[in-house]
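task queued by scheduler; priority normal; single chain, no ligands, no partner chains; default sampling; output format set to structure tokens
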Amino acid sequence: MAMGRGSANKVTMALGLVFLCFILGSEVVESAVYTVGDSGGWGFNSGSWSKSRRFKAGDVLVFNYSPSIHNVVSVNAAGYNSCKTPRGARVYTSGGDRITLARGTNYFICNFSGHCESGMKIAVTAA
């Protein structure tokens, strides 16, 4: 089959466009996965765990705990500071929760009676 004038240019342009799309779309953004409290899991001593780490939006926190005695509640700054669960807050109860960080400060508490007040809360800032 004979190609007409300009057919080779169209093929070259199409291949160039495909290559450009591949390059632009191939930026790999890898999220890190962190286990809150490391091997100790989510507990009363987790508050300082995040201080030595740098987080990015999209990173994943894994909260490991016994769901019969703890939970994880995603709260706002007021809920974090007051240890109160705001209306509409997301409550996690699986014992192995995976939560993706949003840009800014992400706040988490355990809302079992007295737990947050005893230090079972964490604030994580993601760039």
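post-processing summary
- The first strand starts at residue 33 and ends at 35.
- Residues 48 and 81 are 15 Å apart (CA to CA).
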